[in-house]
Write the structure tokens for this entry.
Amino acid sequence: MKVSREKWSSNFNEWYDWVLREAQIYDYGRYPVKGMGVWMPYGFRIREKVVSLIRKLLNDTGHEEVLFPLLIPEDLLRRESEHIKGFEDEVFWVTKGGESDLDVKLALRPTSEVAITYMESLWHKTYRDLPKKYYQIVSIFRYETKATRPLLRLREVTTFKEAHTLHESFEDAESQVKEAVGIYSKFFNELGIPFLISRRPEWDKFAGAVYTVAFDTVMPDNRVMQIGTVHHLGDNFTKALDVRIQNRKGDMVYPHQTSYGISDRIIAAVVSLNGDDHGPVLHPGVAPIHVVVIPIPSKGSEEETRRIKEYALRVYRTLVDGGISCTIDLNDERTPGDKFYYWELRGIPLRAEIGPRELRDSTVYLKRRDTFEAFPVKLDSLTREVRDLLERQSHEMSKAAWERFNATVRQEADLKSAKEILRDQGGVVEVPWCGEDSCGMKMEELTEARVLGVPLDKPFASEGKCVLCGRTAKSTLRLAKTY
Amino acid sequence: MKVSREKWSSNFNEWYDWVLREAQIYDYGRYPVKGMGVWMPYGFRIREKVVSLIRKLLNDTGHEEVLFPLLIPEDLLRRESEHIKGFEDEVFWVTKGGESDLDVKLALRPTSEVAITYMESLWHKTYRDLPKKYYQIVSIFRYETKATRPLLRLREVTTFKEAHTLHESFEDAESQVKEAVGIYSKFFNELGIPFLISRRPEWDKFAGAVYTVAFDTVMPDNRVMQIGTVHHLGDNFTKALDVRIQNRKGDMVYPHQTSYGISDRIIAAVVSLNGDDHGPVLHPGVAPIHVVVIPIPSKGSEEETRRIKEYALRVYRTLVDGGISCTIDLNDERTPGDKFYYWELRGIPLRAEIGPRELRDSTVYLKRRDTFEAFPVKLDSLTREVRDLLERQSHEMSKAAWERFNATVRQEADLKSAKEILRDQGGVVEVPWCGEDSCGMKMEELTEARVLGVPLDKPFASEGKCVLCGRTAKSTLRLAKTY
């Protein structure tokens, strides 16, 4: 079977909106508040897989889940001055309770650094308590003035996982940044999402941070999307809120912090990064259902149709008993063709067709959603074969996604061609850079693109001359057209 | 060991505040917004057990989880007029985004009937789609003017599970009310929470409902607490929002709805209903950890202490491998006494002490948190014994809770003694009632209590005469001092 990828790759925006709505993932644009949508049942299940995975990775590394109030009083939010400058144009404010005006305006949390730091000042008094690693999964709110897009740029981000950690020293916090980078790398790998890790430039770090490390991926339209950030906060917030702990020498000092977050964009990525004109192809790491069993009625005999259904149920139970997450579509009002369409649109990795031939041979006709390869499998060995196949699919889909991704990351030694590539092909362009902020900012202006920063793993590994000023390059700088 | 229950039962309010804070369940009164607190790590784990259980019960009965936006535009919230009347004094309003005034005020959801009905009008056009059963677990907000109390009366209720269902007819919705009552009964039983089910009186039903069924329990201070409600909404909301579906005769009709909810109060109940002066005693159905292993160092020999620790780790691994949720306290800076205090305060059902004798005999000294009974168990049979014990504890704790509960439900044929009992002893008093609302409301006034309603299972089973007007009684009416 020849699979068309025309809509997915060349007409991605339309494809994306179609999939979110038609596959019942996220209903957007119809709820009567701009920038806010509804997670529908199937989308919620995909979201749940993503949430469970990050929970597991965080719990396994000593993070503790908490839940803070949505509302932050204005005076508290203003305590760290750089921080509030970064957010104040984007805050939704509650000003009324019933008919009364509130004494103090309350912000819908845009992020929770100050709220959490405030409570940490009550909870922790000594280095013996540290490190502490908290996280929560909540909605955050930003009154975006840019064009909103479902899951990509929302006014209510409903799947914000934010971790906040507290440490005795700057160096301990720096080690935590490394742990967080490791956790996120593992997380994206398990979901089959390719990524680059960059240290964001000074002028684009998180408001209130010492520095910011970010993960970016490339979407099918070749635009770059930030999918995770890790911030070293130093003692900026603990100083602003006057939080001190006793260190091991007995002195009262400001502890250091980190924070790191991921959002709804992860679900945008897993839905988008593998697909075709039939819909998304979900990586087994994120598919809430791995196999759908579809009985194909007999052309002539009702008795045979009945026996096919029975056999299909047996296949279904075999898979369930084997620990495979599986469903069976017994809806009599839909033709097999309707069912194929329905489940392909939901991106289920494997389809198990059961018709007269499979009944006769005690086989199952398995079809891969990613390649549309199909072949019969004996019922006896079904569970094992399915397990192997899912593993192979995970591996092959990740590999293919990385290959597509790598092809969009290019090195250029000339700013004009960098600009042309960014305009015509998108992706990421890496250029040599002298290291001066002024040159970096000028490059953003000239290329009409954004600086992603320098590679985290090899910040100083560049040869040649700065593409802007011609001085000796100190590092590689990444440029991209971003969401 | 004689266990004191003085603080728990006679000084419940103080005990409750102490437990929430000291056992790191919910930090209340220190976060700088009135009526909003912070779920701390241990509390979050208890909450997670409760949430997982209700999710399982709902998913198993065909409910689909969704997630709606927090914000509801004022005009949408006002569409059902009875409904908004019930809430308008209690709504928090967002009026500003950044520096701009919003065109339409946005409510922080007090509940989600109108938002969900609005989207259902886009999603469902025919009876073939029905029944649909949605639910979400979210924060809701009420600008309470009454005194707030942690988990009992909050301005941000953080664990609101609200289900919303859509049906072809009034009767179908009525069957759904029954299913919901069954699900909640099972839920409370698995958590060991005793309850009464009452049909609330007309003057106390949910704003916008045809009728409301409610679950109530009795707290250790003998006050009655509502822990769950189920509403038949009829076609009130679908009419108000003009939502129609094609029924099986081909006519366009208003579908009928139900909604049902539980809240943070469930966690208040599981923490409070079993306890003593050492802290709460968690029912195994809700305890996030079932066994804590505590090594007791040798008095003289470091070598023996080392071997005790090793053996304790072996015990811990045996339990983990046996599928028991278990932790081990290896903190060298705390004495065994500190550890006993710490874990008793967290209500862990079983403690496994390992000292020189247990090392020598290959045993474990098990102690029940509920009765403080203690006895040695052979390592060989540990997992089985622990499993049996947990089952016995569940059973005995539920039984004891029901006995305490039943003793607080009394029948009275005289209003004056009803009033005295309610004032002096609390609990629930059942009196004969003529069925007239005016008599019921008058009873509330005279007894300074609240009418819970009539028993759902035997609404008309009363003898004697209405305690107010003396006419022949038509049913039993329940009165209580409530939270």
Notes: The first strand of chain B starts at residue 26 and ends at 27. Chain B touches chain A through 56 residues (CB under 8 Å). Residues 382-406 of chain B form the longest helix (25 residues).
